[in-house]
Amino acid sequence: MELKYAQTLLALSLLTCGAMADTYNDATGDLASPTFDGFTHLDITSVEVTNDANFVYISINTAGDLDAVNWGKFIVGFDTGRNAGDNSVDPGSWNRNVDWGRGITDFIGSWTDDGGSGAGAELRSFDGSSWGLTDATYLGGGDVTADDSGHAGGTQMLAVSLSALGLGNGDTFDFDVFSTGGGADPGVDHLSRMDPATSDWGMTSIAGQFMSYTINIVPLPPAAFAGFIGLAGVVGIRFAKRR
Ligand SMILES: [Ca+2]
Ligand SMILES: [Ca+2]
Question: How far apart are CA 7 and CA 230, in angstroms?
């Protein structure tokens, strides 16, 4: 009974922990020297993407400690294909000096630069002719969230709603991620490139080939439901015996 109980628990935990994240690796130390020397918090090492029924979750891992610095921003550019997109980072708001090499339809502009006590983000979208603010952490609409719990380990965690991106199960979007500073700075490190994307603060960064991710909403299979009922029965019996 004990072994079967353990096996059922293991099976249940595997079924309910959700889809595995897709990991997109970047080189470490691929920032132009000497301008960006020492800016390990801007050096992206990998990005993990996963989703559930409502959100896409994006963890941006860096080589630094995001609690140890009071500046640094991370942009995620999406091309969902819902319109031709725009090769910019919204000239009216974030306006970073980036050449995506294509149009993007949406981006998350996020910040970690509050001295390690929080994180924030905006979600901006292109409607085919102009950019607009969809939601922001300071507006609390729930379409974009930011989490600073991984900052000491160098990770900026973001979530964006599928509905805001106009995406559903089976849909694929293309994306790139870059780190940057303030104003019209370029992308200091692009996930899409293993080599420096810019040579200096005043030089446009050039994106590489975008990554792609396919939304996979995993329904709870009937077998798992049966297992849950079975486990509930086992637990019920065990609890009953202890009374
Ligand atoms: Ca890097
Ligand atoms: Ca890179």
Answer: 12
Task: Provide CB contacts within 8 A for 227, sequence distance 6+.
Answer: 8, 11, 12, 15
Residue 108 CA, ligand 1 centroid: distance in Å: 19
What's the CA gap between 211 and 60, in Å, rounded?
A: 14
Instruction: Please tell me the distance between residue 196's alpha carbon and the centre of ligand 2 in angstroms.
Output: 7
Q: What is the DSSP string of 117-179?
A: S--EEEEEEE-SS-EEEEEETTTT-SSEEEE-TTGGGTEEEEEEEHHHHT--TT-EEEEEEEE
Q: Tokens 């849909």 label which residue?
A: 171
Ligand nearest to the CA of 42: 1
Phi/psi of residue 8, each to 5°?
Answer: -65, -40
- How far apart CA 207 and CA 191 sit, in angstroms, is 8
Written as one letter, the residue type at 66 is L
What is the whole-number distance in angstroms between the Cα of residue 90 and the centre of ligand 2? 22
Q: Which of 87, 91, 53 is nearest to 176 (CA)?
A: 87
DSSP assignment of 225-236: HHHHHHHHHHHH
Q: What is the pLDDT of residues 57-116, one digit of tens each?
A: 999 999 999 999 889 999 999 999 999 999 999 999 999 999 999 999 999 999 997 655
Confidence (pTM): 0.85
